[in-house]
Design goal:
By secondary structure, the chain is an alpha+beta fold. The chain is built from two helices and six strands; from the N terminus they run βαβββββα. It starts with 13 loop residues before the first strand and ends with a helix. The relative contact order is 0.24.
């Protein structure tokens, strides 16, 4: 399965971006966003993710963040270059993406001994959902950097 349509976000223009230089290779970062998501973001033992277009994924985030299911489908993936996926989160309350299928894209740009992680997340249904992700994604990138440095 390679021709997986992305959600139509034309009626949901809210989006955010953030960047972070991380001391790791693009390959290590691609793995951290796919097959090793449970190294830093997903609760170990809950990750089901194969980085191939059309494949669904699921995990619960780390227990210390509160238990929230995350699921979606891989839209595109190029090892050491990028991964793009739909991103749905929530726990039955008005949190996360509020049940909306958003689109998360991670681009990995080599920069000497570092890699610039360029994160974009689009399709939020509310200002509150956008604000929560604008606050939390930079913190998550800090955690990722710390995990890969350790």
């Amino acid at each position: 399965m390679t021709d997986i349509p992305a959600p139509d976000l034309s009626h949901r223009p809210r989006r955010m971006t953030c960047q972070r230089h991380i001391e790791a290779s693009p390959t290590a970062l691609f793995e951290a966003w796919t097959t090793r998501f449970d190294l830093w973001f997903a609760e170990p033992g809950t990750l089901a993710l194969v980085p191939e277009p059309g494949r669904p994924y699921f995990f619960y985030n780390r227990q210390d963040w509160g238990r929230h299911p995350h699921y979606g489908r891989i839209l595109s993936a190029a090892p050491a270059e990028h991964v793009e996926m739909t991103w749905l989160t929530g726990n039955g309350e008005a949190v996360g993406t509020e049940g909306a299928e958003t689109v998360l894209r991670i681009d990995l740009v080599p920069d000497g001994a570092l890699t610039e992680v360029q994160l974009s997340h689009a399709g939020f249904v509310s200002d509150a959902s956008l604000a929560g992700h604008e606050e939390n994604w930079p913190l998550a990138l800090d955690i990722l950097a710390d995990c890969l440095r350790a």
